[in-house]
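Hi all, long-time lurker, first post. I run a small reading group and we've been trying to get comfortable going from sequence to structure in the token notation. Rather than ask abstract questions, I figured I'd post a concrete chain and ask someone more experienced to write out its structure so we can walk through it together at our next meeting. Sequence below, copied exactly:
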Amino acid sequence: MILVTGAAGFIGYHLCKALIARGEKVVGVDNLNDYYDVQLKKDRLNQIESEPNFSFEKIDVCDFPKLLDLFSSHQFSHVCHLAAQVGVRYSLENPFPYQKSNLEGFLNILEACRKFPLKNLVYASSSSVYGADPKIPFSEEEKSDRPISLYGATKRANELMAHSYSHLYDIPITGLRFFTVYGPWMRPDMALFKFANKIQAGESIDVYGNGKMKRNFTYIDDIIQGVMLSLDNPQPYALYNIGNDRTENLEDYIKTLETCLGKSAIKNYLPQQPGDMTETWADLSRIRQDLGYKPTTNIDTGIKKFVEWFESYFRPQL
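-- Answer (accepted) --
Happy to help. Here is the structure in token form:
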């Protein structure tokens, strides 16, 4: 049986769906907080709640007694920990939820896995850990000790905490550094969603970094491929980048979205915001060699699939 925390989230929902599709028994937990529209989270869960191999518990991973009860009653073989307070910019204005969810919540997961031994723990890290690292593409071999946002700092702290628990208690643990994930059911605070929303409404979009930023945009199906490979292949301790094969200019990303929407964007160019990285690009050598990971979705295909979902689901509600 597999536990997925953050099951009502963007990546968590897609992972639960993929695991159920291959016949796994899955328990999903989420606290359904109001960082963004709770209805979107509930609608994701509605897609899978009727599946016989899926059950959902509304639990906050910061509630350690409830978490221990959950582990005690289910005897999980695998855990994928995705629950976290997300968002680089939000961490600049509201730092304490990151301390609570990302540090205390992760420590609770590690302690639960220590008390109830399992075959594999996989958890979400982030490309944000690379911060001011000047070497492109980003490699797991780098120290990654200069994050430029509190969010990135908490994710790097997670990696160090995981290493200590793996070393002390022989827990197989893999951390996954996600690179700019997008696709259907994504969060409304993410750039692609915000751009689509404003372009459809005829409003201007804020393009930070004066449009010069580059990102390793990664479609959700490619991310899920990497997560599943990591769950299936326990490591004593490992860190992997999960991204796309190439980095894309933000301007090209927006042009592709304009094409898919059939509308032009009104662009409001702004300087780079504090905490934002100029460029992200994943070195995939390690995950390719160890797990056979191979991303296949380019932005033309991925953005088209996102727009199809966006127009069928979200626009009518607005």
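A couple of things your group might point at:
The chain has one domain: 2-185+219-246+281-296.
The first strand starts at residue 2 and ends at 5.
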